Amino acid sequence: MSKTIKEINEKIASGKAVVVTADEIIDLKENLGAKKAAEVVDVVTTATFGPMCSSGAFLNVGHATPPIRIEKMYLNDVESYAGLAAVDTYIGATQASTTLGDEYGGAHVICDLIDGKDITLRAFGKGTDCYPRKEITAKISLSTINEAYLYNPRNAYQGYNAAANTSSKRLFTYMGILQPHLSNVTYCTSGQLSPLLNDPAYRTIGIGTRIFLAGTQGYVAWMGTQFNSAAPRDEMGRILSPGGTLAVVGDMKKMSTNFISPAVFERYGVSIFVGIGIPIPIIDEDMLNMVSIKDSDIKMNIIDYSVSEAPRPVLKTVTYEELKSGQIMINGKKVRTSPITGYNKALEIAHLLKEQIISKQFYLTEKLESFPAHNKLNSLKSI
Amino acid sequence: MKIRLLIEFPEQLATEPVTYNLVKKYDLIPNILKAHIDIDMQGLLLIEIEGTEINIADGIKYMKALKIKVTQIDAAISIDMDKCIHCGACIAACEAGAIHCGNDYKIHFDHKLCRECMLCIKACPLRAIQSIF
Q1: Residue B12: which residues within 8 A CB-CB, separation 6 or more?
Q2: How many CB atoms are closer than 10 A to CB A374?
Q3: From A184, A342, A347, residue closest to B92, measured CB to CB
Q4: Which residues contact B110 (CB under 8 A, 6 or more apart)?
């Protein structure tokens, strides 16, 4: 039996849709069997809340009188890219402050804007006949500027390698602190809750998919950068190393810093935690089987970050369940494991999205276009 | 019993052998976790002391008589739970095992195990961890 998204939306509208989270579906399938569960359940909600460096926001700050064609812009001393038209800019999450360094950056500017705080804008242009002004200082906030939308080129990684360090030196990385002599492992992704791990072949998630993004409804704008759908997979089609990614877009004016948060990784720099929730329509039994993925089904490679040449060696492949347990064995040695992703917040988002669908505030969308199935990555070669 | 004390020495007492007296006169076992003298010559000492209840009370009385400020604290480290997003980055830093992720997927801080190394302060992406020192 199969269901269309239109039928599922009709059930949502009539208050009859059955919606569960990606961890609740696991027991439900065990109890009912895949066939029955696929008939009963209409939507499974997935979510993630992790540091996603490839994030940022487009802002249109409005025209001044006399007008300026901005070529350089600083927001609270964080440079934003101004090489597009006169008053459009892109503030990247990882850009560091020129005065505070890594303790404040683009991610903080984005979250301060979402919190309604004032931001000091300083901008410069060469001055033209049509834009005579050469510099401006102003206070802006989310209510004084025109558009403000988050556009994150690469979020929601489909599986991400865990990290360790076999060297004798402590490493400070975007995967957090890696203690020397293989003393700990850090890992990302939200396991059985993770959006793309629940739809590994991108059957329902594609361009145009409506999602929960940082507290509001956003969209999948495109396949994310470094989209590696050709990554090795198991017999179920599940990814065995980092695979697909999502480019997402949403209105910052409707976001909440409950679901997006600036981050500073010591000696690495600024990043941003982004909360994403994606509903997966149970269109058939195959889809039900995919969303029933358990932490124990998810294989994750532990990579040695002390090796700088690619490919970094895989120290061991373990399951997400083992990583979540807090301790694993590598070469006969007990090694501590810890996350750098807010599983608790991901659960909250999955439940919130479920409530929003049940209460008819969130309807599902048909993807407008599918992602490519065999996309590979190129690498940068120096000359 | 074993308790953790934050001891603040006024300038004129920064060179007084208070810890020695705690051992000799009150039979206490001190374990100094952190010590610091600032530019105004005021001393700050974070210490764990072990001994009988009576001896600990007498030791504290002795210090207070010298006008030394003594405060019993859990740890110099504290996590601002309003800021914390429970990402777990601090767990990697804590080799003492004082921070762990519970079954509720939230961060739990066991101050008794904290060795005050302060690496968790650097590890926290939200800058939600602070120390008195």
Answers
A1: none
A2: 8
A3: A184
A4: B97, B98, B99, B100
Predicted pLDDT of residue A310:
83
Token readout for A382 is: 């120096």
Q: Are A255 and A248 in contact (CB under 8 A)?
A: no
Return the HEC string of chain B. Answer: CEEEEEEEECHHHCCCCHHHHHHHHHCCEEEEEEEEECCCCCEEEEEEEECCHHHHHHHHHHHHHCCCEEEECCCCEEECCCCCCCCCHHHHHCCCCCEEECCCCCEEECHHHCCCCCHHHHHCCCCCEEECC
Residues of B in contact with A173 (CB under 8 A): none
DSSP string, A27-58: HHHHHH-HHHHHHH--EEEEEEEEE-SS-EEE
For residue A6 the two structure tokens come to: 């239109």
pLDDT 10s digits, B75-99: 999 999 999 999 999 999 999 999 9
DSSP secondary structure letter of residue A370: P
Predicted interface score ipTM higher than 0.90: yes
In this structure, what DSSP letter does residue A369 have?
B
> What is the per-residue burial (b if ≥16 Cβ within 10 Å, else e) of A176-199?
bbbbeebbbbbbbbbbbbbbbbbb
Report the alpha-carbon distance of residue A46 to residue B30 in Å, rounded: 52
Interface of A with B (CB under 8 A): 49-51, 103, 172, 176-179, 183-184, 186, 261-266, 271, 273, 326, 336, 338-345, 347
Q: Quick one: pLDDT at residue B12? A: 83
* Burial tier of A32 (Cβ tally within 10 Å: 0-12, 13-18, 19+): middle
What's the pLDDT tens digit per position in A323-373? 999 999 999 999 999 999 999 999 999 999 999 999 999 999 999 999 999
User: Do B106 and A264 lie within an 8 Å CB cutoff?
Assistant: no
Query: Considering the entire predicted model, what is its pTM?
Result: 0.95
**Which residues does residue A319 pair with via DSSP β-bridges, in sequence order?**
A299
- Does B121 reach chain A within 8 Å, measured CB to CB? no
Helix (H) / strand (E) containing A289: helix A285-291
Cβ neighbors of A36 (< 8 A, separation 6 or more) are none
Q: Which residues of B touch A184 (CB under 8 A)?
A: 92
